[in-house]
Batch of 2 targets.
Target 1
Amino acid sequence: MIVDCAAYEGGRRREGELSLERAGEAASERGAFVWLGVVEPTEAEFQAIAAEFGLHELAVEDAVRAHQRPKVEEYDEFLHVVLKTARYVDPEEVIEVGEVSVFVAPSFVITVRHGDFDLAPVRHRLERRPDLLEEGPGAVLYAIADHLVDRYLEAAHGFDEDVREVELQVFGEGQNPTERIYKLEREVLEFQAATVPLGEELEDLCRRDYAVIPEPLHEYFRDVEDHLRRVSTRIENFRQLLDSALEANLTQVSMQQNEDMRKISAWVAIAAVPTMVAGIYGMNFEHMPELEWRFGYPLVLGIVLTACLYLYWRFKRSGWL
Amino acid sequence: MIVDCAAYEGGRRREGELSLERAGEAASERGAFVWLGVVEPTEAEFQAIAAEFGLHELAVEDAVRAHQRPKVEEYDEFLHVVLKTARYVDPEEVIEVGEVSVFVAPSFVITVRHGDFDLAPVRHRLERRPDLLEEGPGAVLYAIADHLVDRYLEAAHGFDEDVREVELQVFGEGQNPTERIYKLEREVLEFQAATVPLGEELEDLCRRDYAVIPEPLHEYFRDVEDHLRRVSTRIENFRQLLDSALEANLTQVSMQQNEDMRKISAWVAIAAVPTMVAGIYGMNFEHMPELEWRFGYPLVLGIVLTACLYLYWRFKRSGWL
Amino acid sequence: MIVDCAAYEGGRRREGELSLERAGEAASERGAFVWLGVVEPTEAEFQAIAAEFGLHELAVEDAVRAHQRPKVEEYDEFLHVVLKTARYVDPEEVIEVGEVSVFVAPSFVITVRHGDFDLAPVRHRLERRPDLLEEGPGAVLYAIADHLVDRYLEAAHGFDEDVREVELQVFGEGQNPTERIYKLEREVLEFQAATVPLGEELEDLCRRDYAVIPEPLHEYFRDVEDHLRRVSTRIENFRQLLDSALEANLTQVSMQQNEDMRKISAWVAIAAVPTMVAGIYGMNFEHMPELEWRFGYPLVLGIVLTACLYLYWRFKRSGWL
Amino acid sequence: MIVDCAAYEGGRRREGELSLERAGEAASERGAFVWLGVVEPTEAEFQAIAAEFGLHELAVEDAVRAHQRPKVEEYDEFLHVVLKTARYVDPEEVIEVGEVSVFVAPSFVITVRHGDFDLAPVRHRLERRPDLLEEGPGAVLYAIADHLVDRYLEAAHGFDEDVREVELQVFGEGQNPTERIYKLEREVLEFQAATVPLGEELEDLCRRDYAVIPEPLHEYFRDVEDHLRRVSTRIENFRQLLDSALEANLTQVSMQQNEDMRKISAWVAIAAVPTMVAGIYGMNFEHMPELEWRFGYPLVLGIVLTACLYLYWRFKRSGWL
Amino acid sequence: MIVDCAAYEGGRRREGELSLERAGEAASERGAFVWLGVVEPTEAEFQAIAAEFGLHELAVEDAVRAHQRPKVEEYDEFLHVVLKTARYVDPEEVIEVGEVSVFVAPSFVITVRHGDFDLAPVRHRLERRPDLLEEGPGAVLYAIADHLVDRYLEAAHGFDEDVREVELQVFGEGQNPTERIYKLEREVLEFQAATVPLGEELEDLCRRDYAVIPEPLHEYFRDVEDHLRRVSTRIENFRQLLDSALEANLTQVSMQQNEDMRKISAWVAIAAVPTMVAGIYGMNFEHMPELEWRFGYPLVLGIVLTACLYLYWRFKRSGWL
């Protein structure tokens, strides 16, 4: 589905939306370029666009099927860039990954979006920056990449908070965060797969001399790349922290087990005293003088109670209870 | 065993199958190439083919013996490419690895297959694409590589499902998935050894200028390489996840142990109360006034029962029972 | 906020502080350069400075927002270097990270500081080294980098002491250093993210020929880089040691658990002897000759006591008690 | 000790063994080369050989002392290649590492063997391949490298079988394979140190243009390198598998412990029933009506037995027994 | 403190020790060079030397302060090489690290030693090798590097023995080697930090064309580098082995715990039999026929004893006792 199609000239948007045919014509005018925004196109829909703009069969396949890696592919007449969108959904603690395919040529830029994600704000923000728009379709690519990588930083922030919560659980009481740690690790891996490969590709974008990325844009792409590296470092750190949290958690579980065992044992030991003493005075010997004492029974009860209290006090002091 | 042998010219298959001698002749005609398909040849069979097409002794050895790494080897007159086939057999959770050796020269392509795997569909699909076939034997290599790497993606999908099942087992109850996790790890390693080295080799295929891979095919091979990288990333993630699952599993086992220990101890503590009280009233002191009370016995029974119920309630509340 | 602004000529500071406008003028004189020190500027403040000195929009953004990675970015007319400050706060065992942005051009150097950190000592020390100051703004960059990396070494020293304390806890008694180990690991990771990337960037600074870094300064920057590498190696070792400490700690916990269990069991075994014997002589058989013996009771008590002492001695000897 | 010394010309061995002096002369004839085989030479023995053939002092030292890394060292007039031999001794599960030093010059090849390993079969096999021998001393180097790397593959096969046995032990019953896993890991590391560095060195051998390795041999060395890479991949996988086996084993031990603990506890619980009931009817209250019932005793025995059987059945059902 | 200062000419030492001033003069003669040996100099002492030989301020600082990384730094007129000395002190199982700074110029070599280590033997050995000494100051650098790396090999040997001892402890009985393993790991990391970075630097020394390292010395330095690589490989393996030993140790501890628990439980089960039976015959039912039997008491004792022995035999057979 085509969601927006407009021609840009000298940094400004020409009035009105264009039909696909008109877009093709506009793209062939000098000094102007067309920005065509498409959402989850069917194969047939995108075939029509590809025919109009002369896109390569393989790029078409990629754009329609989604589930690509982030990449920058150079074709003879255009550049095909695949970017992943990433959104951290906090209540479920999952990372939602979408995809934007961008076809950049000197006279057009086609953006193909898959997943629940809106490119309209990017377009509006860019339309307020004629100095950038003047640099042509490359500026559109920059604006999208910049926007997406800022979203990565937000997602990383969301992870950060959950990692800190998990830490509190690991070193707090009464919870078993093992499953949560594991699930977070899974999401971090997915986030990493969606974002990190883009780094190399962006570096390439600046270093090689692509006609569609004029020199003044290089610094802008370098800036995006720099933000992406911060994301990469943080992701790597999340993995490290979650790994350590998993192991620390195991230690805490063992520690807890030991404490429970000591507590149990302490009570068992305390209960063993009256049982043992009672056993002794339950023997049936004929000659057991204590049994005949007038205050034998309360005396024994008192001794037992004292012994129990003494044990309780010792266990308390040594931290077993 | 030769399974299919045909000559192709101008993107189309010439009528009829060729004998080995006729194939040699056809390969020497201009503008035509021969595609010879062989399955698990004996040394003698393949010696005959090698003699006909002038293959190098070492390549022959590799083709007959199988168990090679994926590789691209350049000889003076031909290219020898070894590709691994991979199929995930779900019920047994094993990866079945086979091998296809492809000898590509400007005038012929020989495919040698080892293992339970059919190349006929690749041939049929390619025969419906004269535009690709026109590029010569390199197109055959592409078609096979493309087909195999798509199978890798399917295998990765199979792994994915089993990894998710294992996760349910780890965090579910009553099962010990340790052995399953370990076995999956073993298979993932085998899958990795069979597929990942191909990446580098494919990259090489595009970067160097091989006569048998004309330029229009570069984008196709790059596409295959790209799919392969997705497989690599997923395999790497499987390894990470299985590693973490192994450790999470250990924690869960310790956790379970602690819970069992607490439950047992709680019951032992409850049982200790009547034993202790009964011991006390089993003592043989002459002067134990309670023993002579009319309702001493039911009173003690009641007290004991109340104490036991109180303990039960407390353990229930603190989660030990 | 501008904290200091002065012109330097021939290795010496000219008298008096300059206003922003005068600074711009001074920067355009030959043979002189201006050093402008800013602390946590607002966007508006820094826009004024950027306009005066012609800084790029993206660099401005970075300077105002902080939270950048360490980096060296070349713009057409100046170099933008981001350095992280790191201070180890020992009582809390956290690493406090700040940031200094340095804009270096042949005729000016602007330092933008974020966080609780003072650059005045650097300025004073450098003003006592006219031989370095003569090399121009690059010397200021060197002086700051040198100062910061020396702070890293101090921070690493602080970590070192805490790692050694943690070791004593792991192999000492009665403490659970798991949380401390984990927290230290988190701080080490943050320290690493703040410092290690600088290494590559510094290397670059010497290898490429930047106009603002004259050749005589190369050896100085190489010296800073070398110190940084020592920091990197130590950080890497901290991570290794903390990883091992986490695992060693788990082993110690298990070990402790085993010892506690043995101790408990030993006492249970000792208590089981009188209980068992008392049970036997508590039986109500009519014909139990021992019960009628005159010294049956003290004899049994003596035997029980002897058995208990014997067990105690054996457990003591085998290390269970 | 010199074990064999012969001159080769045009791919064939000249009749008779040569003395050291005659070997030196033969090496100076055109179109011929000498192959001198030495076994664990003393310093003096090898000094004589070095003097005859002009070997460098450092190479001599290496050849006599053994315990080198695999390496290829280029000297002005010859190439010094150190190769490790590896044999897996299955009953002891150790890897036996030896060493072959090969000095290759255009007119001679000297092989120095350390350890229990026979090069004679290599010589005999090569003497049946005049086409290879014609390429000169480089062919001897190839024949040895090829032979050794094939031995590596055999050793890897031996490891493979033991790793599979260890897996059966980990997931089987009643054994503690921890020590075996650890020892295997040690041997794998030794195997790796002996073989993997050779890979890089071999790659070098083909890429650089050494006079003693004529072009037709390149494909042969590439073949050896390829086999070596398969060994490397398998070694890496062994390490991974043994690491995972160590962790899986720990989980199995914990699992076993939990099962044992449950079993013990179940029996303790069953035994607690009669003890508790007997305690109650052992109390000395004057008014305990049950005590006077005619069938009180068998009734209580029956109830206790029923309760025990019921517990046994429940524990059986829940898998604790 | 200057410990030795002499001039060398044509591979031989000139008679007599030189004062610092005379050394400066001698260094300016053609064909001669001066070797100045200094031990832990004060800043003032070394300033004098630096002034005499024209050393750079930064190099002076490094030489006086020690605690550098191993490195090779090229200054305009000399090369500054920092080497670490390493000695394994076996009883304490610590690695003692010192430092040697070497300043190499065409006409002088200054060695600055920090730590308990003697360079005199190196000087004496080198003075017996005029062929090497003739190559100039580079030969001195070689001699020192060679000597130090041989010490590394000895240190690695010392580690090897302790690692093997630790293994015996892990799989032996009654010891807890956790702390020892951890401490060894710490020392291995320190050893690694002191030695491994030298590898790269040495490689550099041969590859670049330094005037002070004439070509004939290249093979000698390559030899040192090769020995260093063996050290690196062994260190890496120590780390691997100690990591695995730590984990194996944990498993052994768990295993031991399980065995102890089974042993304890077996005895508890055996003791439960007499307690239970005695409890039953301690009940006060009026109608318990067994109590009146003449041989009831010895019969019950016999039955209990038989049951205990039977249990003992079963536990023995199943390995619990």
Target 2
Amino acid sequence: MSPDEIRQQLADAIRMLAHAEIVDHSGHGSARRDDRSFYINSAASVRGALTIGDIVTVDLDGTLVEGSARPPFEFHIHSEIYRVRPDVQAVMHTHPRWSTLLTMVGAPYKPVFAQGALLGEIPLVDSPMSVNTRPMGERVAATLAGGTAVLLKSHGAVVVASDVVECFALAAYLEENAYRQYMAMQIGDPYVFSEVEQQAFRERLRTPSLLRKTWDHYWSKL
Amino acid sequence: MSPDEIRQQLADAIRMLAHAEIVDHSGHGSARRDDRSFYINSAASVRGALTIGDIVTVDLDGTLVEGSARPPFEFHIHSEIYRVRPDVQAVMHTHPRWSTLLTMVGAPYKPVFAQGALLGEIPLVDSPMSVNTRPMGERVAATLAGGTAVLLKSHGAVVVASDVVECFALAAYLEENAYRQYMAMQIGDPYVFSEVEQQAFRERLRTPSLLRKTWDHYWSKL
Amino acid sequence: MSPDEIRQQLADAIRMLAHAEIVDHSGHGSARRDDRSFYINSAASVRGALTIGDIVTVDLDGTLVEGSARPPFEFHIHSEIYRVRPDVQAVMHTHPRWSTLLTMVGAPYKPVFAQGALLGEIPLVDSPMSVNTRPMGERVAATLAGGTAVLLKSHGAVVVASDVVECFALAAYLEENAYRQYMAMQIGDPYVFSEVEQQAFRERLRTPSLLRKTWDHYWSKL
Amino acid sequence: MSPDEIRQQLADAIRMLAHAEIVDHSGHGSARRDDRSFYINSAASVRGALTIGDIVTVDLDGTLVEGSARPPFEFHIHSEIYRVRPDVQAVMHTHPRWSTLLTMVGAPYKPVFAQGALLGEIPLVDSPMSVNTRPMGERVAATLAGGTAVLLKSHGAVVVASDVVECFALAAYLEENAYRQYMAMQIGDPYVFSEVEQQAFRERLRTPSLLRKTWDHYWSKL
């Protein structure tokens, strides 16, 4: 994909997450450009109306490489993950309602529906503070380790993937699963998928065509 | 009814269930064509915008008889029920939110409002896995036995009927009842209709004109 | 008011309650014509699109006096109340979500917000069956006695008043109060207004201008 | 700002709160004009369609100074606060759903998300009655003391600030925080921000540019 195609895809992904209320007016997403830089939506951009013009390029210290608008204060989430995870090509920082409610009461996130199994169990950064310093970014990256997602207590979520489409779909699945977990917790103790069940869903559902179908489904709701 | 009329009715039923969020982007419905084949929406079809062109015909082994698009992987739900239930002319596989939440916490489905009495108590397939093999389809059919509906743990529901309109209405009633049961469970222990009360509602409400009124009501919300 | 004005007002009231999801596709409302007859929407009428042409006139035995469409099977609710309550000029039979959920778990309706005080405590008909016979209608009227409203277990509500505008507003207040009571019950034990507080609100809020303001508010949401 | 600019800003703020369902058909907001008078929306104004023409000027006894429409009966909330808090330039009286539900069950309001920290803990007026007399207004002002907000049991909220934009944003944050607190309480015991965490958010988030961003965000949803 060309840089413009990647930036367009990134803008579309964030815009869809904003329409689904998974990103609010201050979430952000990024795509790796190379070892030392990445694309990210600007701090001031309107998430629900994002265009390619809202995507700037910054290096791993947050210095602008392309574009003139300031990146989000929490760019450290992205830079510190790109620094230590060469396999990661895209990062989403979302403010998802149901996932965050689980963190507020100390309830661990559990896979309770098919697509949720693609994320497995998710570690928690046990602080509600903003990730607006390099040490906080390093803490997020360290908690993520080799995984797919991190939850930030009373704050939000971070999801990483090997491309923008997968990152979008996983960010959506995380919240879809959390919604079901939260709603089930209101009337009882939800069944958690066994490791064998999770593995079966991972093998069957983490395919390019199904991830793309999720993208198309959210696209149709714009 | 002509084959085209049945396929149109089937497409309309699935489309209405999608608009009511009872079918999501991967649910499916079918209508029997004869002893050895049935109509079903294709795997790739967009459920909320379904047309007669999205309906294909397959035999009981899932082989395409008419049309060129692939049927859903879970066609076994339909084929195994048609195989052993000659009275069944239509089958809906839905992903209903509230009904599924009940299964997630092991709460049995109970008739708590008038239309819910048409379904009675509903057996559970105690596995969250996809019904994408013939043995899993046989398990669903065996759990259904001579009944009207089956719930699939943490997954969804299957409803059968003697025609598409009735199947649609019962799929809607199942979820309307589950919604009330779930909401009541949040504040207490909902009153379950007695067998005498259920029987009275079955006699009064399972009439072609009332089932059609439900169809028309959902149609008006498209 | 002329008969046509009353019928128009009745159609508007039911239509607004349908848009607020207090009346569903089978609720009904009536206005007294004289000692022996009343106006009511027909059984088949579409509640959310009601016009004056959907209003028929029946006597207290349900026999059509004007119009050609059948009245609802549950016309007995209206006729038996008109028979014994000469002060009542309008009756609404609604299917309100939150009020009904309270009845499903046996939670008594309690005044927990200002407008709810206009209804006070509300007696319950302890049966989920349809009010489609004269004895059931008499039971509803006897439970109502000299009051303003009755709840029907796992079924709905009946509200009476001295004109259509007041009846509409009280039907709306009943559900607005039940919504707050239900939502508060999810996190604790809601404060119930004292008799002195209720009396103060009744004196201040049950005025023609405030009832009309409620009507106008719902009208603005059509 | 000119008087017309302040009145326009006030009308916009109330209109946005009405669209967000934080103000209902009877809430009101004001902005100080001078030591002895303030601007306020009239009692009869339609909150969701407010224009500058709906703003009247009254003195601290509620007597009209400009305009011809009657102020709300509860103008005492505003006048008694302006009387004793010379630093206050704007007051909002809202009827926020989630904040009020907390008061109904006696649950104290707690800062559980970043913007909620700008309000801190909030005192309660332990009466559901209207603030339609000077003594009740004085009671509200005394409970507020030097703070930012007061909750009124089973009734609503009052927020004060140094200008209309800040007052609007704080009224919105109060309800956004209460929503999260309520929802978390349904599944557990939400984490309350420590005093250190609250202080950090107050320093970082109570800036003119972030308050204005909140205003712009709600504006985009009109």
